[in-house]
């Protein structure tokens, strides 16, 4: 490079360089606030350009959440359903006062765009890991909803791809960035409850329990609903509206997970309050699908996967909302769940530490109490998000190992470092499943 202009590195140029720089995620790169425009406005050249893949249900929620962030711009949306992609385009165009948002049916066409820096993936669960892998290979950073993978092997591939391509990846375990949950986690992590002996995770939702095929129905026009793309890497089955309409697919084997459906929300929260440095294995004790599963980590902590029949939002003995976690130690207990006005604690005096605990957390981690903001900050800095690939894979491995334990109806021991079951060839064969061409990663 022979002139000064050619030596200037823009934020977008840095992000594109990061797609080919191995290990870039480990090297912090901070953009000064003065580079982000005047009066709080972000210059167009410094905006993170984002595409949204899967814009129905949770995807529309994530789209609205992301649109509230002033330093990004959505330039494309993708969905196999025309009605959803049209609605998403309308929302994006209304936000920006133009008609510039591009629309795609096939995520591969969106990922081929070189100008997109990051993608939000909120498809059905069957597409989470394949779409994440394809996106990172294309040089995009990824915010992916949970459960992040259908199999242990898929989760491994996500971790390996993020590492190989130097990508920022955040899974949508948003309670890791919510104050009440962070307080409970920090009370455990910092020793304020004493050495934790038991931690509880809410796993009351059951999915993928139906094994039959629904009767074939005429497929809609591909432009209205692309059934082949909807199935993606899953084994082919004939179209039936019972799969595609609403969340019917939640209930079918091969399209979703069982205990991991809800454990993906909460096990990451439970593990966040523990010292996982030296934890090498988890032992899983088989119980009936509607009964609580007891597990034990190699550091002696009992991890209780709370699972009973009934409404996931109903009050139970450990919390009175959904997606709860609780930590028990000799000095007391603390927990949180959705809908709380304040965390649950064994002694009201503990709540006097609430503001201090959260302030200490923010000072130590430099993370906001906003999950998508943490992701976007990391896209800029290239540091690891709070729900990074390793966090995702550790929690999903336990979820999916629990599902395999249920299927085999026997106790299992899982090696978290090797990602394999100890002395059980049959269980190890269940760590992966065939992926349908051409959607193989």
Verbal overview:
With 441 residues, the chain is α/β, with parallel strands linked by helices. It folds into 3 domains: 5-173, Rossmann fold; 175-208 and 257-366 and 392-429, Dihydrodipicolinate Reductase, domain 2; 211-251, no CATH class. It contains 14 helices and 15 strands. It has helices at 11-18, 58-67, 82-96, 107-111, 128-137, 152-165, 179-189, 227-231, 241-244, 259-272, 354-365, 371-381, 389-408, 425-429; strands at residues 48-53, 72-78, 102-104, 118-121, 141-144, 169-171, 198-202, 281-285, 293-297, 302-306, 325-329, 332-336, 344-345, 412-415, 420-421. The protein has a 9-stranded mixed sheet with strand order 13-12-11-7-10-9-8-14-15. A hairpin with a 7-residue loop joins strand 12 (332-336) and strand 13. Helix 10 packs across helix 13. The model is unreliable at 1-11 and 13-38 (pLDDT under 50).
Number of strands: 15
Describe the strand arrangement of the main beta sheet, using strand numbers: 13-12-11-7-10-9-8-14-15
**Rg calculated over all Cα atoms:** 22 Å
Domain tally: 3
CATH top level of the largest domain? Alpha Beta
What distinguishing features does this structure have?
disordered N terminus; about 450 residues; Dihydrodipicolinate Reductase, domain 2; 6-stranded parallel sheet; Rossmann fold; alpha/beta; 3 domains
């Amino acid at each position: 490079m022979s002139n000064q202009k050619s030596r200037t590195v823009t934020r977008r140029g840095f992000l594109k360089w990061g797609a080919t720089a191995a290990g870039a995620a480990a090297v912090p790169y901070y953009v000064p606030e003065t580079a982000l425009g005047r009066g709080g406005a972000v210059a167009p050249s410094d905006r993170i350009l984002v595409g949204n893949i899967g814009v129905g249900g949770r995807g529309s929620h994530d789209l609205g959440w992301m649109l509230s962030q002033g330093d990004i711009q959505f330039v494309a949306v993708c969905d196999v359903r025309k009605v959803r992609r049209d609605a998403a385009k309308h929302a994006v165009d209304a936000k920006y006062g133009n008609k510039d948002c591009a629309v795609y049916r096939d995520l591969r066409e969106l990922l081929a765009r070189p100008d997109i820096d990051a993608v939000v993936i909120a498809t059905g669960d069957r597409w989470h890991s394949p779409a994440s892998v394809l996106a990172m290979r294309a040089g995009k950073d990824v915010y992916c909803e949970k459960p992040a993978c259908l199999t242990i092997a898929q989760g491994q591939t996500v971790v390996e791809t993020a590492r190989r391509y130097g990508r920022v990846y955040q899974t949508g375990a948003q309670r890791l960035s919510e104050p009440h949950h962070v307080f409970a986690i920090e009370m455990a992590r910092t020793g304020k409850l004493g050495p934790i002996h038991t931690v509880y995770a809410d796993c009351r939702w059951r999915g993928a329990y139906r094994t039959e095929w629904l009767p074939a129905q005429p497929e809609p026009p591909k432009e209205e609903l692309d059934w082949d793309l909807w199935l993606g890497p899953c084994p082919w089955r004939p179209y039936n509206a019972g799969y595609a309409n609403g969340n019917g697919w939640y209930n079918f084997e091969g399209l979703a997970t069982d205990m991991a459906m809800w454990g993906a929300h909460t096990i990451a929260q439970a593990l966040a309050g523990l010292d996982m440095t030296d934890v090498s294995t988890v032992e899983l004790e088989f119980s009936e699908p509607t009964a609580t599963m007891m597990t034990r980590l190699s550091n002696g902590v009992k991890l209780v996967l709370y699972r009973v029949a009934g409404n996931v939002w109903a009050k139970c003995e450990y919390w009175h909302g959904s997606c709860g976690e609780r930590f028990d130690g000799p000095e007391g207990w603390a927990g949180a769940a959705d809908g709380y006005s304040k965390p649950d604690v064994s002694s009201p005096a503990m709540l006097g530490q609430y503001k201090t605990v959260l302030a200490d957390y923010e000072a130590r981690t430099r993370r906001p109490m906003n999950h998508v903001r943490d992701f976007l900050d990391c896209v800029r800095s290239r540091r690891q998000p709070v729900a990074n690939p390793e966090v995702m894979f550790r929690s999903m491995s336990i979820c999916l190992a629990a599902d395999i334990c249920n299927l085999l109806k026997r106790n299992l021991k899982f090696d978290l470092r090797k990602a394999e079951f100890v002395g059980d060839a049959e269980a190890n064969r269940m760590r992966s499943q065939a992926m349908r061409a051409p959607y193989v990663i």
